[in-house]
């Protein structure tokens, strides 16, 4: 198979620079791997964001921690044969990410409805607080494939 890049396909973009501003990983559904992936993601973000973004990086740490744990625990049920895929992009004015698992998904509309107020429906409930936190800390949060794919965007100070 021959793979060719046409210059006009990337007009106005620095293709190599765009590649450097993207981080991708795939890992099996073990909690230890969440910690490792989170460390790698934070290292990537610190390399590509200014020091003034420290508060946003703290928010991003919490967002990624919640979403990665949800994918492993609730999505893939810690089944080591199932994978979690993460793609992180540092954009001009923020950070976006796609996180997907191989689970059946969940009723994200119900989770959002139950936690749409100022605070989650129940702070003592085992489920729903993570989505509430991610929703509160991000500027955009969307779900796909019945909830097995989560996308978020967070503006970052430049």
- How many domains would you count in the coordinates? 1
Overall average residue pLDDT: 83
Give the end-to-end Cα distance, rounded to a whole number of Å.
42 Å
The CATH homologous superfamily? Histidine kinase-like ATPase, C-terminal domain
CATH class type: Alpha Beta
Secondary-structure element order, N to C? HEHHEEHHEE
Structural category is alpha+beta
Radius of gyration of CA atoms, rounded to a whole number: 17 Å
**CATH level-3 fold name:** Heat Shock Protein 90
Tell me what the structure shows.
The protein has 158 residues and is an alpha+beta fold. It contains five helices and five strands. It is globular, with a radius of gyration of 17 Å. The protein starts with 14 loop residues before the first helix and ends with a strand. The model is unreliable at 1-16 (pLDDT under 50).
Q: Could you write a compact summary of the structure shown?
A:
By secondary structure, the protein is of the alpha+beta class. It has 5 helices and 5 strands, in the order H-E-H-H-E-E-H-H-E-E.
Question: Which features does this protein show?
Answer:
158 residues, alpha+beta, Heat Shock Protein 90, five-stranded antiparallel β-sheet, 5 helices, disordered N terminus
SSE map:
Blueprint lengths: L14 H6 L1 E7 L2 H18 L5 H22 L7 E8 L3 E7 L7 H7 L14 H9 L2 E5 L4 E7 L3
Helix pairs in contact: 2-3, 3-5
């Amino acid at each position: 198979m021959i793979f060719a890049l046409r210059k006009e396909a990337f007009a106005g973009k620095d293709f190599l620079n765009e590649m450097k501003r993207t981080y991708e990983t795939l890992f099996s559904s073990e909690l230890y791997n969440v910690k490792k992936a989170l460390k790698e993601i934070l290292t990537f973000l610190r390399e590509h964001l200014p020091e003034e973004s420290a508060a946003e990086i703290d928010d991003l740490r919490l967002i990624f921690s919640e979403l990665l744990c949800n994918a492993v625990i609730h999505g893939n049920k810690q089944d080591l044969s199932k994978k979690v895929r993460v793609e992180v992009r540092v954009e001009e004015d923020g950070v976006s990410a796609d996180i997907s698992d191989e689970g059946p998904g969940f009723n994200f509309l119900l989770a959002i409805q139950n936690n749409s107020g100022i605070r989650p429906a129940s702070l003592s409930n085992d489920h729903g607080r993570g989505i509430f936190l991610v929703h509160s800390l991000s500027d955009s949060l969307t779900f796909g494939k019945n909830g097995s794919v989560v996308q978020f965007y967070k503006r970052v100070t430049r």
